Amino acid sequence: MQTIKKTCKTAFLASVLGLTVVVTGCASSKGGDVYSREDARRPMSVRMATIEGLRAVKLEGTKSAVGTGAGAIVGGIAGSGVARDAKGQAIGAVLGAVVGGIAGALTEERSSREEAIEFTVRTEDGKLLAFVQGGDINEFKIGERVRLLGTGSETRVSH
């Protein structure tokens, strides 16, 4: 009976870890060439501009309840297995859940960080604007003419 219980815990733990990897791996990108499904077929305003400055930056990772929740579940299960008596299992489960939740949140945030570019551009009417979007800084050059594609609250820089 103890072996079956341990096998079930191990299988559950592996499933939760797998789900965590899948969810954090599916975090949406903020790259200039990535569009959401909602962006399809929507009109965008287009303005031309010249790049005056470029800087490599990082976009912080996702901070949702998924990483925290998955980590807490895994930690709680792992913590409950360290003691043999019911009281020890309960204490281990609580402490494991807290530590697992913190570790899960950190793992989610770190695994979903993204390389990004900070653009400073001058529009044709002389306005100086700055934008940040995901991508590789080597895709663009200072002095290059680019398109600013706007959808209301978001603007992306494109070739």
Kindly describe this structure.
By secondary structure, the chain is α+β, with helices and mostly antiparallel strands. The chain folds into 2 domains: 1-28 and 63-111; 31-61 and 115-159, OB fold (Dihydrolipoamide Acetyltransferase, E2P). The protein is built from 3 helices and 5 strands; from the N terminus they run H-E-H-H-E-E-E-E. Strand 4 and strand 5 (155-158) form a beta hairpin. The radius of gyration is 23 Å and the shape is elongated.
Topology:
Layout: H1 2-25, E1 45-59, H2 65-80, H3 86-111, E2 114-123, E3 128-134, E4 145-150, E5 155-158
Antiparallel strand pairs: 1-2, 1-4, 2-3, 4-5
Helix pairs in contact: 1-2, 1-3, 2-3
Taking all Cα atoms into account, the compactness measure Rg is 23 Å
Shape: elongated
- Roughly what is the average pLDDT, rounded to an integer? 79
The counted number of beta strands is 5
Distance between the termini: 64 Å
How would you classify the quaternary structure? Answer: single chain
Sketch the topology as an H/E string, one letter per element: HEHHEEEE
Question: Strand percentage, roughly?
Answer: 25-35%
Structural class comes to alpha+beta
